[in-house]
Amino acid sequence: MDKYTVTIFLDGHEKKVTCEPGSTLMDVFHHNNIYIEAPCGGKGICGKCKVRVLEGKVSDITALESKYLSQKEKQDGYRLACMTKILGDVQVAIKGQLEGAQIVSTGLDYSVDISPGITKKYVQLDVPTVDDQRDDLKRLAQAIGIQNPYTHVSVLRKLPQVLRQSEFKVTAAYDGSRILDVEMGDNSRKAYGVAIDIGTTTVVCYLMDLTTGQQVDILSGLNAQRPYGGDVISRIQHAMEGSDGLNRLREAIVNQISDLINELARKNDISIDHIYNITIAGNTIMGHLLLGIDPKHIAAAPFTPGTTQAEVYDAHDLGLKLGTASRIFLLPHISGYVGADVVAGILASGMDKSKDLSLIIDIGTNGEIVLGNRDKIVCCSTAAGPAFEGANIRHGMGGVSGAINNIMLDNGDLKYTTIDNKPPLGICGSGIVDALAVLLDAGIVDETGRLLDRDEIQSDMGQKLADRLTEMDDLPAFIIADSKSSGTGEPIVITQKDIREIQLAKAAIAAGIKVLINKMGKGIEEIANLYLAGGFGSYIDKRNACRIGLIPAELQHRIIAIGNSAGTGAMLSLLSLEQYKRTSIIKEMAEYVELSSTIEFQNEYVDSMYFDI
Question: Is the separation of the CB atoms in 260 and 270 below 8 Å?
Answer without folding.
Answer: no
